[in-house]
Amino acid sequence: MDTPAPNAALDGGDMARDFAAALEGVQVDAATIIAETTLSADQRAILDFERRWWSQAGAKEQAIRDNFEMSPMRYYQTLNALIDLPQAVSYDPVLVHRLRRVRTAAPRARRLSG
């Protein structure tokens, strides 16, 4: 049976290298997690845009075309998917919950009126 040298327990060289390597992996993982849990600039722009109130009919649709270079239909499809993301709730919880309520209420109102 091999017995470790008396000073082997005191030599932290291997343990320090292992810890440094593990810490490096954690930092990379944390950077990945942060990148995955934040919204893109385009996603934040859509939420910021949606926060505004529109008083004239058609003005919002034109602004969607001008600002995002997409059709209003595509914009609303994107917005609908966006408000399902937990990152969107973290970014603006009041807006996202309001938009979710509106989305849920619209089909219900159509069913009740028809």
Please outline what is shown here:
The chain is mainly alpha-helical and 114 residues long. The chain has helices at residues 13-36, 41-50, 59-68, 72-82, 86-91, 93-113. The relative contact order is 0.08.
What key phrases describe this protein's structure?
elongated; 114 residues; 0% strand; mainly alpha
Description:
By secondary structure, the chain is an all-alpha fold. It has a domain at about 40-114. It is about 70% helix and about 0% strand. It is built from 6 helices and no strands. The protein has helices at about 15-35, 40-50, 60-70, 70-80, 85-90, 95-114. The termini are far apart. The model has no long low-confidence stretch (mean pLDDT about 80).
Task: Determine the mean pLDDT.
Answer: 81
**CA-to-CA gap between the ends?**
85 Å
Task: Characterize the biggest β-sheet.
Answer: none
The total of beta strands comes to 0
- Helices and strands, in N-to-C order? HHHHHH
Q: What's the shape?
A: elongated
Task: List low-confidence stretches.
Answer: none
Helix content: over 70%
Number of DSSP helices? 6
> Strand share of the residues?
under 5%
Radius of gyration from CA coordinates: 26 Å
